[in-house]
Specification:
The protein is an alpha/beta fold and 335 residues long. The chain has 11 helices and 13 strands.
Length: 335
Amino acid sequence: MNTNIIQHNSPSPLGRIGGASFLVTGGAGFIGGHISEYLLKNGAKKVRVLDNMVNGFKSNIEILKQYPAFEFLEGDIRNPEICAQACDGIDYVSHQAALGSVPRSIKEPLYFTEVNVGGFANMLKAAVDAKVKTFVYASSSSVYGDEQTLPKKEDKIGNCLSPYAATKKTNELYAQVFADVYGIKLMGFRYFNIFGPRQDPDGPYAAVIPLFVKGILKQTPVYINGDGDQTRDFTFVENAVQVNVKGMLTQNEAAFKQVYNVAVGERFTVNQLYKACQTQLNSSFAATYREPRAGDIRDSLADISLAKNLLGYQPTKKFEDGLTETIEYFRKLYS
């Protein structure tokens, strides 16, 4: 298995990591694991991961354990004492811990509220008490809801279409209040369909790209919801790592108290995605179409100019190159 997904020579091109202590919540998960690995590879004094291992993977912890600066704290963000312990002695927080899936949130709205809203508030309070320098957090493009305008701009959102979206919109409201009332420096990132190596292909709420690749490789049923012409701004995980690190380390005062789109600024249909997977895997294995999913946004395309202007964000890997790297990872995993 190739663990060298994100490799840079020290010092980091994204900012001064050396000598600083970082907390990554959800660091045993997909995006959090990549952020943690990048920080460790680039000389962080300490990278503490807080994860309850509900969505995290022991395999990601094993990758991080090879670095002496790594610390693991197993715990739940719904516990305020654990959050306080996690933030103790920390300079920067990247808050990735959350429950993801839109359809699962429709089935379990109270659970999503407890974790995504209650847990988020616990982490904000703990960060304020610990006097962390900067707190960045994962929001979601789902907050745009029924707003039809493309490309999506941060200041124009619609009505939420799922409990998951409502929790992320609530996170943004809490962040604004904490910045105003307590003076903590923070910013949020609205992720647009992040994908890449080590994303979970298993379980009923798995992301679409690992599901497609696994299905084609193993010749097991692959489902496309609706007609497949819905569009997404598929974003390679390396870009999410970049914006988290730049956000934590920025010295630009104008960059705080903002929420940023994290994407590439290009869109592809789900049918185009599936065809690209077939082509790269040299397979004609067909997908099965089924009813559209409740709560799904029809079209998604991000305006990323705000992140470019205030954080110096610049996508380094676009859809096709990221897909090639992702497919190669899963091909090795299942060979």
